[in-house]
Amino acid sequence: MHPGDGTNALALSQLRGATTMAGGTMTFTDFFGAMVGRVGSQMSEANNAVDRQQAAVQTIQSLQQQTSAVSTDEETIALNQSQNAYAAAARYIATVQSMAQTLLDMVATSY
Fold first, then answer.
1. Which of 21, 46, 53, 104 has the fewest CB atoms lying closer than 10 Å?
2. How much is the average pLDDT of 12-39?
3. Cα 68 from chain centroid?
4. pLDDT in tens, 51-94
5. How far apart are CA 87 and CA 102, in angstroms?
6. Residue 23 is part of which domain span?
């Protein structure tokens, strides 16, 4: 091996089709595609959960507006639901960031 002889480039090109990820069952491309798919699916699930929470909050707010007196119980419920939706979204973002960092670390260490 001599500097500039292309040995490293050849080794990298051979990794393209090598099953080195997921216990030797997936290529880098397959693994990355599966990871992106999982992240997309989890993001969709989280967005759906947030949408459901927002719909519930809107329903409660609408019902509250229909009554003449302000109910502290209803306000507390709406506040708790909003806090839960925010907390769920924050946990989801933290998980996605952690997964992305792990993937980047795995790719970086393989070179």
1. 104
2. 86
3. 42
4. 999 999 999 888 877 775 667 888 899 999 999 999 999 999 99
5. 22
6. 7-110
2 lies in some domain: no
The widest CA-to-CA distance across the chain, in whole angstroms, is: 84
3-state secondary structure the chain: CCCCCCHHHHHHHHHCCCCCECCCCECHHHHHHHHHHHHHHHHHHHHHHHHHHHHHHHHHHHHHHHCCCCCHHHHHHHHHHHHHHHHHHHHHHHHHHHHHHHHHHHHHHHC
The domain total for the chain is 1
**Residue in 89, 100, 5, 86 with CA at minimum distance from that of residue 47:** 89
CB 19, CB 25: distance < 8 Å:
yes
Residue 101 lies in a domain: yes
The pTM is what? Answer: 0.43
For residue 65, being part of any structural domain is answered with: yes
List CB contacts of 99: < 8 A, sequence separation 6 or more.
Answer: 35, 38, 39
